[in-house]
Amino acid sequence: MGHGHDHLHDHSHATAAGDDLPEALDLSIPTAELSSSDASRRRFLLGAGLLGAGAAASVLAQPGAAEAAGLPHTHDPVGGGTAKGGFRWLAGDHHIHTQYSSDGQYRVLDQALKGHAYGLDWLVITDHGSATHAKIGVDKVNPDIVKTRSELPGLLTFQGLEWNIPAAEHATVFVHPGRNEVDVLKRFENAYDGSLLPATNTAAQNEAMAIAGIQFLGEQVRKRKIDGALFFANHPARRGIDSPHEIRNWRDADPTVAVGFEGAPGHQAAGIPAPNGRGGARGYYDNNPSAASFPGYPLESYRTWGGFDWMTATVGGLWDSLLAEGKAWWITVNSDSHVNYLDQTGRGPDSNFDANGKYNDPVYTGTVNTSAGDFWPGYYGRTNVGASSFSYKAVMDGLRAGRIWVDHGRLIKNLDARVRVTGDRRDHTGTPLGGVLQVKRGTSTELVLDIDLQDVPNWAGFVAALKRVDVIVGTVTGPVADKDTYTTPNTRVVKSFEVSRTSGRVSFTYQLGRLDKPFYLRVRGTDGNRTQPGLLGSSVDPYGPQLDVVGAADPWGDLWFYTNPIWVLPR
């Protein structure tokens, strides 16, 4: 049972990288505490892109690189976000459509203004890849994005697109702003979008094109055409066509680009029951297997669980099978906003999308749209990124490093999770989300978790109440023999903390024992309204999310948060 108390921030300079790491390279040490020569060395390394960004191909194969990705924390009072644990936690959404999508309707500025008003610090415009978009859309949307950056300097607005992954579902692809952002995105889409490839391609040829597309993005970074590119697979279990081996192959194609998938899809308003809403499935997860689906997936994978994708929601499932390999693979949430619930606008009349690559600006209709399946960006789901500053690069670095926790309906206000050597109470001690703590075998470690409970109403008008927090631990077993593996046998909920407080901060410490084999952990929490034993049984997950029922899936009545993992490895 955890009890809330005031928490003193902890600092440590001997963290995952070991005691012998040069101070200039140990990004857990604030620059202000370095000697002038070490500070100068660090600035050079950071400026050259040689420190702090890349994630390792495997935390087992190259833990040093993963440490560099997971460890930096500096203090920066400038910009948006909430300071906690030495980071600025910046809320964002990487999956948003506009009038430049064949099934969208809003201006870029409409989505950005609403997203910023609903609390977002960053967002990505991701109009659909298609023949029309590839031909003119990438160019046409850019001035609107540039204008939005100027109009809303307090919001980081990225340009991206929704990629039709060859042989698979969709993905967010986006790049760091710069003079080549349009050129790189346009060349990428024209060469690698699945909708533009020959219909005669075999599945194997298309899977190879997906890998080549991810590698192309990495090459553009290495050639310094752009300062960064990221890929997140969208709604991965929705149609069953993202097979486990494809997901592994995307990540392995370039782990600095392909870094994760949606832990929960957008389109959450689609679950609002009739007559007040669409009365459908959260995320539009109302599908059944097709000829293109991976035959191993169970029928339960085609539905959401507490609003989350089956790949994430199943303890010991597909996501955990990747983490147990030591693969850095992160989860996010977002809106997938196309047309928004309770909005009163429609597409501009006399639009010719095929000719113009966009719809005319939306017009007021006076009719309240209760059948739309989407929420405005920031209204319901948040991807919270631990950034070193308020900047495009810092957001991309935080995403790449896995310093991410996600929630629905503003379930909690903020979160700081760290693993540290037991009893080490120095300031900011420990390894944060996405990081790797390396200690000698036999060393005792502990999870320290601080959660600021919600005290302001969410956009549905109520203050969400956290009722339970679960700690999930899995053994790291290394690479799998079969790339279509989607379970791992040694991951389970090891501890649940009941939350009785309704305001302030709750802090939990969980003893992880003496290190005898490598492991990872992750954390989730719930309002406790809907739970059931997980798909792999109550001994693995006694109080997991419930299977969402089409037509009776009010997204506001079933709220969860999830963190990304932390690894503990012997050195």
TrEMBL record:
Domain Polymerase/histidinol phosphatase N-terminal: 92-167
GO MF assignments: 5'-3' DNA exonuclease activity; 5'-3' RNA exonuclease activity
InterPro entries: PHP_domain, Pol/His_phosphatase_N, Pol/histidinol_Pase-like, TAT_signal
SUPFAM superfamilies: PHP domain-like
Alphabetized PANTHER family for the sequence: EXONUCLEASE, POLYMERASE_HISTIDINOL PHOSPHATASE N-TERMINAL DOMAIN-CONTAINING PROTEIN
Annotated protein name in UniProt: Polymerase/histidinol phosphatase N-terminal domain-containing protein
Lineage: Bacteria, Bacillati, Actinomycetota, Actinomycetes, Micromonosporales
